[in-house]
Amino acid sequence: MADFARVATLSELPQDRGTRVEVDGEPILLVRDGMKVQALQATCPHAGAPLEQGAVCAGRLICPWHKANFRIQDGALCEPPALDALRRYPVRVEKGEVYVSARPLQAPADEPVGDDDRVFLVIGAGAAGTAAVTALRDNGFPGRVLLVGDEPSAPYDRTALSKFVLAGDMPPDEVPPLRPADWWARQRIERVVARVTHLDARARQATLADGRVLDYDAAFLASGGEAQPLEVPGHDLPGVHLLRSREQAAAILADVRPEGRAVVVGNGFIGLEAASALRKAGMAVHVVAPHGTPFAKQFGERLGRMFRALHEDNGVVFHSTEVAQVDGEDRVHGVTLKDGTRLAADLVVVGVGVKPATDFVEGVEKEKDGGLRLDDRLRAADGLWAGGDIARYPQDGQWLRVEHWRLAQQHGRLAAANMLGADQAFEAVPFFWTYHFGKRFEYLGHAEDWDEERIEGHLDQHRFIALLVKAGQVQAVVACQRERATARLLEALGEPLDVERAWHLVREAERE
Ligand SMILES: Cc1cc2nc3c(=O)[nH]c(=O)nc-3n(C[C@H](O)[C@H](O)[C@H](O)COP(=O)(O)OP(=O)(O)OC[C@H]3O[C@@H](n4cnc5c(N)ncnc54)[C@H](O)[C@@H]3O)c2cc1C
Ligand code: FES
């Protein structure tokens, strides 16, 4: 056929990664699968990562940036944060040469067809909720789907707020939406912008703030975390901000002045991402937290010190104490610390943690912090599944509550399948990324405790892989600028992984 172009020789295509080619200006990824080749979209539908920098293993292509993965055979989505499959292109192999056409194959129609009189309700239009409604349709459910959320805009990528919006790199209204604007009507998802004030799991009924009552056959609850305020005098002065929503990010941005002074309370991920972004916006930034080494609990002292040094090298000043009070009359003008230090401040960002937003839920088992205790199918009660930041779920003999974007979406996808009768256990390996001064750090797995850190690479140059190891087994991995290797490790962490095998996989992934 005339529009096929010869693009490669089969024997020269590696099997452990994709190869990017261009046909008529169209970037296409060739992925070799034995003697066959697939031609797929070359950039990730999530945020545009070049997929040739990812890894190929166990029949899947793994994105380097945030580890979405796709089935090689047909580009189907296997794991988020992408929510769409890859486009496919016609390809053929003749006499060892690979020919591709730049005209994508027609994707199967994705509109829901058929009849089903059940009503599925999803509460919380964030990471988990949006993934759930998408998966309900991807799994062929044609009945009514209602997505109730109290944020005014269509679901968006919350993770961009602390990284790009506060830095002035992305206007709040340009934060990427999670689904295209025309998708909701095409998929017949009924978006309801309202607050749920009462969820009665036994009666299978949700009541909205305006009095409407919604009955459901099955529901997925993903109301996320509520950013917690400071509990000191002055905490509610204008200029003191929490950061969870687009509106809150916009309010912070409105107070950002180059040469202005910001105090960040809390040295967790949100606090330090905000510190990095506010430095980029030209502000002087002081971070206040009782423990001087950020992330020491999650990653250990040595890696924690690396994060602190990265921030200090970029002008952030740390104070190892707590806030005694926020000073100001009509608005904040400073912060007094418990050690007596007074810091001038034009704005304060509070990042001291979140609490699961479940006060309105009745008829389920709740933890002290408001988290919902789920079974391994992510079920909270008959007809009710839950996921995301509110979920406490069992895995490998531990109870986990994990505040990660990708994991919330994985919950949503699995719960959707189970609402349709799949009866699958949740087994995904947690993955988290965080962004500071232009560097993306990755955290794979989950380690409560470990007895050694094995580090390969250069912490001071932010190019390394650290294995958190307990009794010779890798519990978790922290890494920066080693994305193909972490794509392999994330897959491998699904099974017990010893240190030697982990380094072997790293070497294999990074072989040129
Ligand atoms: C600024 C920021 C940056 C982040 N960056 C990263 C990152 O880089 N990597 C990462 O892995 N994770 C990151 N996270 C964490 C990640 O965003 C969360 O783990 C994830 O959003 C959890 O998904 P969720 O669906 O449980 O909750 P959410 O995404 O918060 O969605 C919950 C939704 O439910 C709504 N809601 C709550 N109560 C009700 C109610 N009663 N009625 C109706 N609606 C309700 C909320 O308003 C919200 O829209 C970040 C979080 C924030 C705030
Ligand atoms: S760009 Fe591929 S998962 Fe984010």
UniProtKB/TrEMBL annotation:
<dbReference type="Pfam" id="PF07992">
    <property type="entry name" value="Pyr_redox_2"/>
</dbReference>
<keyword id="KW-0560">Oxidoreductase</keyword>
<keyword id="KW-0001">2Fe-2S</keyword>
<keyword id="KW-0408">Iron</keyword>
<dbReference type="GO" id="GO:0016651">
    <property type="term" value="F:oxidoreductase activity, acting on NAD(P)H"/>
</dbReference>
<dbReference type="GO" id="GO:0051537">
    <property type="term" value="F:2 iron, 2 sulfur cluster binding"/>
</dbReference>
<dbReference type="GO" id="GO:0046872">
    <property type="term" value="F:metal ion binding"/>
</dbReference>
<keyword id="KW-0285">Flavoprotein</keyword>
<dbReference type="InterPro" id="IPR016156">
    <property type="entry name" value="FAD/NAD-linked_Rdtase_dimer_sf"/>
</dbReference>
<dbReference type="InterPro" id="IPR036188">
    <property type="entry name" value="FAD/NAD-bd_sf"/>
</dbReference>
<dbReference type="InterPro" id="IPR023753">
    <property type="entry name" value="FAD/NAD-binding_dom"/>
</dbReference>
<keyword id="KW-0411">Iron-sulfur</keyword>
<keyword id="KW-0274">FAD</keyword>
<dbReference type="InterPro" id="IPR017941">
    <property type="entry name" value="Rieske_2Fe-2S"/>
</dbReference>
<dbReference type="InterPro" id="IPR050446">
    <property type="entry name" value="FAD-oxidoreductase/Apoptosis"/>
</dbReference>
<dbReference type="GO" id="GO:0005737">
    <property type="term" value="C:cytoplasm"/>
</dbReference>
<feature type="domain" description="Rieske">
    <location>
        <begin position="5"/>
        <end position="100"/>
    </location>
</feature>
<dbReference type="InterPro" id="IPR036922">
    <property type="entry name" value="Rieske_2Fe-2S_sf"/>
</dbReference>
<dbReference type="Pfam" id="PF00355">
    <property type="entry name" value="Rieske"/>
</dbReference>
<keyword id="KW-0479">Metal-binding</keyword>
<protein>
    <submittedName>
        <fullName>Rieske 2Fe-2S domain-containing protein</fullName>
    </submittedName>
</protein>
